[in-house]
Amino acid sequence: MFLPSTNIKVYLAMGNTDMRKSINGLSILVSGHLELDPFSGHLFVFCNRKRNMIKILYWDRNGFCLWHKRLEKHSFKWPASEEEIMTIGKRELTWLMDGLDIRQREAHDSLKFSTLF
Questions:
Q1: Cα–Cα distance measured from residue 79 to residue 81, given in angstroms and rounded to the nearest whole number
Q2: What is the pLDDT of residues 6-63, one digit of tens each?
Q3: Which residue pairs, CB below 8 angstroms and at least 24 apart, start in 90-98?
Q4: Are 55 and 19 spatial neighbours (Cβ–Cβ below 8 Å)?
Q5: pTM
Q6: Cβ atoms of 43 and 36 closer than 8 Å
Q7: Which of 65, 78, 82, 107 is deepest in the core (most CB within 10 A)?
Q8: Between β-strands 10-13 and 43-47, what pairing exists: parallel, antiparallel or unpaired?
């Protein structure tokens, strides 16, 4: 999957979403129910009840993009949460799309260093 810009956030809409919704319905869901800006360029990820379909909505300079993946076998390891929305990184999104849990126990943590001058 092509991931836009380097400074994007990935928002998972928890629970399940009606996959009959297309760009207009999902963008209304993002702005109305989730209270986020669908024009931000961030990725908004939705999953159906069976966990075999994912849609990703994002704004790309001059129009919305909608990416859709349906599994013929198996299901996505969609996280459970009490929150309405969960923020994850691009790495976790890749894991999710590959059928892995986004909370990999054996993954290396990100390190952040600063220089002292």
A1: 6
A2: 688 999 999 999 999 999 999 999 999 999 999 999 999 999 999 999 999 999 989 9
A3: 90/3, 90/8, 90/10, 92/10, 93/3, 93/10, 93/43, 93/45, 94/1, 96/45, 96/54, 97/1, 97/54, 97/69
A4: yes
A5: 0.85
A6: no
A7: 78
A8: parallel
